[in-house]
Amino acid sequence: MPLEAIAINRLDAPLIQKPARDNELAERLQTLYDTDDNQPAGMEVLTIIEQGFKRGQYLYVGMFNDKPIAAVGCFDDGQTDAKRLQYLTVHTENRNRAIDAKFIKLVYDAEVKKGVRQFVPVDADIHRIMTEYDLLQVKS
């Protein structure tokens, strides 16, 4: 099964197909962030994400073989048509394998289909990826 980018707006979203424990998705996401030295602690990021959910924001989760292996927040400031991408993390076993670039491209494509025309990459890694793949300005 290929990598998928799935937008969620709650941490108990039913992404894991096999019988999942309560809070399994949230626990796995917290672990992803906790093992990423480039991001704040998992609980801190998930708290920010949950606050965003209340304002209609999304978290994209990269799923591969029924496991969350990547995540990035997709925020809307409500003042512009731009989406702010922030808090990119990838599972430790998948780092340095271009999964981050493929995942950001999937998120980008999904948001462009929704009509988004401008992106603001907050994290240095997201900015590098979007610059490298010429994703900062959507072509009309």
Search tags:
single chain; 4 helices; five-stranded mixed sheet; globular; 140 residues; Aminopeptidase; alpha+beta
Question: What does this protein look like?
Answer:
This is PanM family protein. It comes from Psychrobacter frigidicola. A hairpin with a 5-residue loop joins strand 3 (67-76) and strand 4. The mean pLDDT is 90. The longest helix is centred in the last third of the chain and has 15 residues, at 99-113. The chain has four helices and five strands. Helix 1 (24-34) packs across helix 2. By secondary structure, the chain is of the alpha+beta class. It has a single domain (4-132), classed as Aminopeptidase (3-Layer(aba) Sandwich). Helices cover 34% and strands 25% of the residues.
Write the SSE topology.
Layout: E1 4-8, H1 24-34, H2 42-54, E2 58-64, E3 67-76, E4 82-90, H3 99-113, E5 118-121, H4 124-132
Parallel strand pairs: 4-5
Antiparallel strand pairs: 1-2, 2-3, 3-4
Helix pairs in contact: 1-2
Number of helices: 4
Which class do the helix and strand fractions yield? alpha+beta
What fraction of residues sit in β-strands?
A: 25-35%
Shape descriptor reads: globular
The CATH superfamily is Gcn5-related N-acetyltransferase (GNAT)
Mean pLDDT: 90
How does CATH name the architecture? 3-Layer(aba) Sandwich
Tell me how many strands there are: 5
List the strand order in the largest sheet: 1-2-3-4-5
Number of domains: 1
CATH class: Alpha Beta
**What's the Cα radius of gyration?**
14 Å
Question: Span from first to last CA?
Answer: 31 Å
CATH topology: Aminopeptidase
Contiguous low-pLDDT stretches (5 residues minimum) are: none
Main beta-sheet strand count, sense and barrel state: 5 strands, mixed
Q: Percentage of helical residues?
A: 25-40%
Order of helices and strands: EHHEEEHEH
Organism: Psychrobacter frigidicola
Protein name: PanM family protein
